[in-house]
Each structure stands twice: as C-alpha cells, then as structure tokens.
Amino acid sequence: MAKIYPFPSKQKRTLSLHELFFSEDVEDYYNYFKQSDNWQHEVKPMTLYDGYPNVMACTAPRGDMVWYVNYKFNYGTWLINKSNMPIVESTELIWGWSPFVRKSVAPVHEPLNLTQKAMRHHVTWIVDEGGYGQYGLVTNKGELWVPHPRPDHWRDHNNPGNS
Description:
six-stranded mixed β-sheet; alpha+beta; 17% helix; globular
C-alpha cells in the first residue's frame, strides 16, 4: 500500500474564532451581530443626522482624528490611525486578540451599538501601531478608551515570528 505525503502548500490556513478565543468571547461577538438586525431597523434611524454620512458628526476633539466614510455600506465614523499604514479596509479576515479586534486600518463594519446621535461624536475606530483596529471612545477632552486593550503576553498568531 502506498504511503501518502501531503504536498506542502504556501497557503496558510485561517484559524476559526473558536480556535482563537474563549467560547464566551465568541458568543458575545456573535450576539453583537445578531442584535444588529434589530438595531438597523429600529435604533439606527435615531442616530442619524442631516448630511450623514458625508458630514462629520462634530468637530474632532483630537488633531489625529479623521472622518471616514464607507460609501459601499453607507456609513461614517471617526478614525484614529496610529500605524503608518494607509487607511484601506482589509479584505482579509485577520483577527487580533479579541473577536472585536481586526487587522484593518479602515473599519470593517459600522458601529452597531449606538443609541443616539451624540454617540457618533465619540465612537471611533482606533488603530494601533500594528494596524489592529477596534471601536472605542474618545472623550470631549480627547482621551482614548478601548474596550479590548492588547494584552502584554499576546503574540500575533498571523505572524508567528512577530509579537
């Protein structure tokens, strides 16, 4: 009987959410998107204002903020890019240290948890030096808050040689 040797492939396999994260984190992520159907129809209209998405929500509280508009999906949001990468949406599905963190300088979806117009002044896609982005908040004083800070021990599973 012949022995089978797999042909080496240069294409790397993408790990699934369940392979990368704890079950409860994955469940929170899926629930976030399940609830978005209701948000799209019932809540989103209350968060819109005249000129949205082409007109920024307010004057930026920080000098490094830009108003990003995704014309394909018709939404706008603030963006802070601390990386040296251009503001381009990633077409690859590359996860960070949380299911809510993606390697994409441009936001990959609209923020789906806004409940009022004023929240559009503060919700921001915040991109770190490595190009990983997530939605966070900017205060009126310009302070940043991210819900999923990068853990000190996290190693980039997409680039095994880098941290």
